[in-house]
């Protein structure tokens, strides 16, 4: 990585679920072809790291659009991508309100929703119909979710509802997975 470049983390939504197959080797090749290489990935849920010049605002949106267009052409379906710098991911991880809640019980999970835009706190509260999930905080483009198993049922996927409420696209990662993503991106 050259001195004028920083590490980015691309969080891809809904890959390798429901027939939306994205092989990580091919994902890396597509990112490399965009000049974002050498790219790396972490697990098959769509977490990619690459170096590029620091961007913000319209330039960041243009980079995200280039990535999404390339991936749609390569894989044949839309792949919304939340694009953060590694520093932004670390900041969002550090700002998570989960430590104050204590360790998650066996029927609980803590998750982070990485999105494509700044989140407006005026749309809060956001809570699942059965209380199975709730947004417990926001930090820039990241929402923090608390999931619960209710009446023996696993929580449904709140992402479509939250995308509509906030007017963004997004994808979730469990809090403990984000810690591992950060470590992998730092290597």
UniProtKB/TrEMBL annotation:
This is DUF1697 domain-containing protein. The lineage of its organism: Bacteria, Bacillati, Actinomycetota, Actinomycetes, Kitasatosporales. It comes from the Bacteria. InterPro entries: DUF1697.
């Amino acid at each position: 990585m050259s001195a004028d470049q920083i590490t980015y983390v691309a969080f891809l939504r809904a890959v390798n679920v429901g027939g939306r197959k994205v092989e990580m080797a091919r994902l890396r090749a597509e990112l490399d072809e965009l000049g974002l290489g050498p790219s790396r990935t972490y697990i098959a849920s769509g977490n990619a790291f690459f170096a590029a010049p620091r961007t913000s605002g319209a330039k960041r949106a243009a980079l995200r659009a280039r990535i999404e267009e390339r991936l749609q052409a390569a894989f044949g379906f839309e792949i919304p991508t939340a694009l953060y710098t590694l520093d932004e991911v670390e900041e969002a991880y550090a700002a998570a309100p989960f430590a104050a809640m204590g360790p998650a019980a066996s029927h609980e999970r803590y998750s982070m929703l990485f999105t494509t835009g700044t989140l407006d706190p005026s749309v809060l509260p956001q809570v699942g119909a059965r209380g199975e999930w709730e947004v417990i905080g926001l930090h820039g483009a990241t929402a923090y979710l608390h999931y619960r198993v209710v009446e023996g049922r696993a929580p449904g996927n709140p992402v479509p509802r939250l995308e509509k409420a906030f007017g963004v696209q997004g994808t979730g990662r469990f809090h403990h997975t984000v810690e591992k993503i950060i470590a992998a991106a730092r290597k």
